[in-house]
Batch of 2 targets.
Target 1
Amino acid sequence: MKNEKLMQEGSIPELLIKMSFPVILIMMVTVLYNMADVFFIGRTGDRFQLAAISLSGPVFSAISAFNTLIGFGGCTASSIALGEGREDLVRKYSAFVLYASLGLGIVLGALIIAGMNPLLALLGTDESTAAYAAEYLRVLGAGAPFLIMSGALGNTVRADGDAKNAMIASLTGTLLNVALDPIFIALFHWGCTGAALATVIGNIVSFLLLLRTVSEKPAFSLSPKDFTLRKEVSLHVLSLGLPMAASTLLMSFSSTISNRLTVSYGNEVIAARDIAGKSAMLIPMIAMGICMGVQPAISYVYGRKDQARLRKIVLGVGTVCLVFAAVTSAAFFLFREQFISAFSPDPDIIYLGKQMMLGTLVAVPVESVYHMCSTYLQATGKVAYATLTSLLQKGLVFVPVLIVMERLLGLPGIIYANAVTTMISTAIALVLCTSWSRQIAVAC
């Protein structure tokens, strides 16, 4: 009841502190987690291992897409049901999240391991990176059930506004991952295998903590008796999770295309791009965390048909995201060389990384608006618009822009393709949000 009162009556600062701040910490921890493998592999000075991890990124994104499909869908469905007073549905949604995640994780992990050779060819590895990428992916495939379950439950826990426990679980798992990286990579010299093993162990610990948290919530259920594949539960959860999951899955596909184009310029370019991307991802991830943190509140007030409250939350949080992204992007630009050199002493990688980081930062403030639009459409259940919005930046616009710009400008075209994509995608997303807001106003 306390969390529901916060979603219904809390001020924007209260929502940001109590709901968004824990998710922001999760996002920061996620950035730290993504940086850890790159940092410790990068410090070995082996650009081929660094490139192998980067080339394996689309597979990790694909795994993330499935935990988002189930977890974010379960969170949205449960938040709306709580707003409507339907705790019976919440129990079914939470049980579906757990067991569907387990099943998908087993299937996906088996596919990764069994299809290793064609997968490596698809990712664009060569004789210098294929063996390292295979090491990394075998361990990720074995741990896929835990990677999916921990992500899915982490999203579901936030359905009633409880971002704190999701944060604790994520923070614990990621800090363990970061602590194990230097042991496995620097001390034991396990390289890519050690990096992947640290990732899997961290996710197992996060999953166990989340499992305990969900089991203690009276409105939620982990009982097999509440698990059902009936379409009013399964299809509802999957349809609500589809926009963000489709975005992540398409990002995996787009990253594969981008990798194959970029690798033709050399493995050092792939390594520099990965370091620059990891260094600059903190700002958009925090902006996304702000939006995701208030998503349950948006869903809750939408379920109550409180249009005034809905508008206040979306506009207020969107403004905070935009201002934050603009200020922090400027700061990152000033210190971009220090960020890049912290990951690799290679002068070629530092030089290329500075250019690539600039290409990322230039559109970050606009990207924060894009995240708010996507969250708003997702949280209010406008599946068609939300799906289209999520697909714009990650593929529908990005892939053709990338191909055209690379052919016209070469490597600079690859560097700035994402910035051009973000501008176009955000403009379209704003049009869709305006249209949907008018429909809500008429319905209310």
Note: Residues 411-443 form the longest helix (33 residues).
Target 2
Amino acid sequence: MKLKNILIVVKDIQISKRFYKELFGLDIVTDFGENVILTEGLVLQEQNVWETFIKQTIQYGNHDAELYFEENDMDTFLERLDKSTWNISYVNKLMEHDWGQRVVRIYDPDNHVIEVGESLSYVARRFLKQGMSISDTAQKTQLPKDIVEEIAKAEEKGELPR
């Protein structure tokens, strides 16, 4: 068995398609009208259709899940948010976790929580570039030391870490 997609219920599929295209660069793979499959495995389903399937009323904004995106160029993404025509509501503005990862959390038009954060390999690479040792980087990022060593070797070769 394998997980194929993540489905979120939305009030207005046209607004949601535009939101995920403009801010996250997701494209439409298949558009069934009230059900749309986007790149990266995100599926949008209009509320009225979903309610006929589950025979219950939808409640938005329960903060019980989030969509997680990785973006290593956080400054450019934050500029995109600031310059967008969307009235962005933040769960939290840019913050740095104890392990060094910078993240921002916002709501989509239907109050789904979206987190955008740097990949941990990028965080490790940043610390290594700042002169932090492999051991200290592993401890700070909570990544296994062998993974940090792999990132350091890739950095030496000018390759992007995974």
Note: The CA atoms of residues 91 and 106 lie 5 Å apart.
